[in-house]
Fold:
Amino acid sequence: MRRRLETTAWFMAPFAVILAAWAFVLPLFEVNPRLFPQLSQVIEAARETLADGTLIQHVGASLVRVAVGTTLAIVLAVPLGIAMGVSPVISTFISPLLRFFSVLAGIAWIPIATLWFGYGFGAITFIIFNAVFFIVTYNTLLGVSTIPMPVRNAALSLGAGPLVMLTEVLLPGALPNIVTGIRTGLGFAWRGLIAAEMIATNVGLGYMLFVARDFYRTEVIVLGMVVIGVLWLLIDRLVLAPLERATIERWGMVQRA
Amino acid sequence: MKGLTLRHLSKTYFDPYSGTRVDAIHDVSLQVEAGEFVSVVGPSGCGKTTILNMIAGFLPHSGGDILVGGKPVKGPGPDRGVVFQSFALFPWKTVLDNVAFGPKMRGVARAEREKIAREYLAIAGLSEAAGRYPSELSGGMQQRVGVVRALANDPDVLLMDEPFASVDAQTRMTLQEELTRIWAEKRNTVLFITHDVGEAVFLADRVVVLTKGRVLDEIKVGLPRPRKWDDANKDPEFQRLSAQVLEKVRAA
Amino acid sequence: MILVWKIWGAYVRLTARFPSVATLMPFVPVVGLWALVAHLELFPKVFFPSPLDVWRSFIDLTWKGILPDYLQDSVVRLAVGAAWGMALGIPLGVLIGMNRIAYRALWPVLLFLQAIGDIAWLPILVIWFGYGLVTMTFVIVYTVLFPVVLNTVLGVRSVPPVLARAAQSLGAGRWSVVWEVILPGALPNIITGLRNGLGYGWRALIAAEIIVGTSGIGFLMFDARRAGSVVEIFLGMIILGILWYIVDSWVLAPIERTTGQRWGLVTR
Structure:
């Protein structure tokens, strides 16, 4: 417990220094607020946008899009990946295709998505879906095909039927890869989200930043950047990384270097 | 060639888990003469590797002196060559470049240092392996390279830290015989750390028994050189010395 | 059924001899399906062009010189950004990996800056540097930098301390240890970092070209989107995919394999 506190303290210390410099040193210089805001202005902006509810609205819109797009993608990608991964023939044939589309994942789909779905929820959710779907499918397929044949044969000879095979062998065996895929995919999706929101909508974090730019409201931009950073750190450190650790390291399926 | 002197050497460190001071080494004094081969033998945890690490300069010592040729030791340096239990070859360098590393650090030109390296590789019968990477060699071969790499730097003192502990028994005996042969040629000052009594006696001029951070006893080994395991196994003097050392180690 | 297996067997033998066949062949049915769907006009033609339309547009744009120019712009931007990212990232990573104070001071900040993500910087960069090359280069350097730094730190810390000791006892000084031991030991990780960094940097480039660009493949696509010209969007996507595929599997992956595996640092 004391160790944890100590680690946290060391982790926070550099930020405390930066904030202190921002709060006390920057005001000593005449910085044009149209180029970089004072800390007090950013706090004021945070208070203001929290009070009138716009910050919550933007954050909410962004998170809903990510949640919907990601959930849809995972729900479709995992079964598809497992189905294709079971057959070595199909998986070797299909994997270059999946790699090609994972490479395109996210941002490259913005132009076509906005053309197909128009500006708004549909296009952005599609972009997120896309970023997650192909990478997760590819990783699931990879995960299933890396389950050693003896393990599958052992399950069969112990009397596992197709359903048991799926829930007891294929899914758990591919899980570490699936989780890694989700983590990578979400990383791309998050960036894609911000980029898409700058172009293709009228609500969301990316939109908030981009509109603020039109009015040179740097304090809102910086606030938005901090929110984006904190949100991603929370998602990545509190949800994805523990999930990855729990599956991968616990099962000892990957040796740490 | 220079001798190695340890005078009232001690090591204490602070254990953050128990929150107490631990005495790892108490007052060890030892003189290794120039050109002498000394084995240090003792049970695991007796502090022998700690002593070697302090001589090599990897760990600071708490008290006493470490002298090479009368000069105190400060940090790691090329006057003390080290052969590691884990070989510690550079995986990204070929065998030749590994052996030529010491001369390179001295600023020897490429052609010259490669010539030196090839000479030493030839002594250990490794000429064929010069262009290969360590990962492509067997454990026994890797440690031959480790020994040759240390020797090619022409150190005043050679420190060997259980160098043959992680190779198989058959190879170990071959390596031990090779070491006595090479040593007979080069006559370096050697401090050899091991927990294997037979190995200690077979290689050394003198065996030092270490326990709980103290020197328990020293035993002179006057066996003729070059030594072979076939001869040693039949030699009653070797048997007697081994039994004597083993008794001391057990009493530890 | 037997015939199917015979064909598959022949295909496997063919791909063993010519690995590129295995990469290209799966795209044949996809393109075929694409052509069929376009031909049947299941979707309106303005939304879904046929492969032939895209091919014509490719020839057309190449002939006019627009495509080669844009492609060159994008690739050069990426290369310049990657070079800067490495030039800054590797030394920084070595410093953080070897020095406890630097680690404590910088590591949390790095994690946070990485979390902000390149694209969120675009609005303020536009205010600072305007629309143009500086903004774009900044974004790419920013994206490449963090994976390189983070992986270099991991790499530096994964070098067994005994190797540094071995070098020291052979007479290596501080800088020799860094140059001869730490850097080569961290190299496989550094390359992995570069590979990840380029993966992100390349996406950032496209986003930057879409949002603030005046040339490049991303700009081509978004310009086409404004004009409602779906053919060129398709063309842009295909080119992006192929380009990255080539860079990743013909350049980065082989480097990663040869260093790591020959040295026995990475097990397959």
Notes: The radius of gyration of chain C is 23 Å.
